[in-house]
Design brief:
single chain, 324 residues, Rossmann fold, OB fold (Dihydrolipoamide Acetyltransferase, E2P), 2 domains, 5-stranded mixed barrel, 17 strands, 21% helix
């Protein structure tokens, strides 16, 4: 539920988001979805296309004709005012959005009207070109996988392609995203490769090696509850700020997901009565008990580390943490 400037409740407009690159299979899947009576049951739907591939939509196969197609060719036209205008003209109550693979997800969310809520996001890619995209446009690949609940690799050749190679790329971005392979012989197989964490979460003390910090940070932020009341130790760089609550500091590391441009400091809230003794950028080895609770710095719930011991140390050999 969204709110307008007068703080009045506004009904959400569900958005079904399909991302990926040209010839990845988005159009085919959307066509099949709109042919399904369970989805297309008469509800007015805006089919919003931000790129046009070789395949076209066949409206004659839809069980309901309450589908209104609109094409946005220029990124500058993908803005809140125009989107509201298009939706109003269509009279639709939901949106199926085929997003341009060259446009970023950040631009998408910055321009969506406040009442447009992404209910589902799926990514479709051509297995024959995916590795090339990942090698040359890694940031755009990460951008699309990161928002998706499911990645579908189309035209996957079981005889010449290795699932593990594709699997690692997706898991380097997200542990939650499901993976499916639509093979060249028409079968669909779901990824069942196991990804055990490189540390023992059930140990009396969870010891995080320097090379595993990125995986640890992503896992604890995605599933903090499973770390509640656990004891952990790791090396991190300290950050202090006068705006922090008393006896509070941040401990974390810079993490690179795909490229230098996306490096960011990924930190956890720490509470310790001697927090004021630290200087920002000092490296420490800390041991703490994790408590999942609401905290001002998270603007909601998150893992708060109740520090038990701290030792000053040097920076790790590789200061920027990475995945895999």
């Amino acid at each position: 539920m969204a709110f307008n400037n007068q703080n009045q409740e506004i009904e959400d407009i569900p958005v079904y988001l399909f991302v990926g690159f040209l010839e990845g299979g988005k159009t085919k899947f959307i066509q099949e979805t709109l042919e399904d009576k369970r989805f297309n049951n008469g509800e007015k739907t805006l089919l919003l296309l931000c790129e046009e591939g070789e395949e076209e939509y066949d409206f004659s196969k839809y069980p309901s004709q309450n589908i209104f197609q609109y094409v946005i060719d220029e990124q500058e036209d993908f803005n809140e005012q125009n989107l509201k205008k298009i939706l109003k003209e269509s009279g639709a109550t939901r949106v199926v959005l085929e997003y341009n693979g060259m446009w970023t997800i950040n631009d998408l969310f910055e321009n969506l009207p406040v009442e447009w809520a992404v209910y589902q996001a799926m990514c479709f890619v051509d297995s024959n070109t995916f590795l090339n995209y990942n090698a040359n446009m890694r940031s755009l690949v990460v951008d699309k996988i990161n928002v998706s609940e499911l990645v579908v690799f189309n035209r996957f050749d079981k005889n010449s392609m290795d699932q593990l190679e594709f699997h690692k790329i997706v898991r380097g971005v997200s542990r939650r995203t499901q993976i499916a392979y639509e093979t060249t012989d028409g079968e669909v197989a779901y990824d069942d490769i196991q990804d055990p964490l490189p540390f023992d979460i059930n140990a009396e003390e969870i010891i995080i090696k320097d090379e595993d910090y990125a995986l640890f940070y992503r896992d604890i932020m995605e599933e903090p509850e499973k770390y509640h009341n656990k004891k952990v130790s790791f090396r991190a760089a300290v950050v202090r700020d006068r705006k922090f609550p008393k006896n509070t500091f941040a401990a974390g590391r810079h993490v690179m997901t795909c490229c230098v441009e996306d490096i960011q400091y990924c930190w956890l809230v720490c509470e310790w009565e001697k927090a004021q003794m630290f200087d920002t950028r000092q490296w420490v080895k800390l041991t703490a008990k994790i408590s999942v609770q609401r905290h001002k710095l998270y603007q909601g719930k998150g893992p708060v580390l109740q520090v038990q011991s701290v030792v000053l140390t040097n920076a790790p050999e590789q200061e920027v943490a990475t995945f895999y």
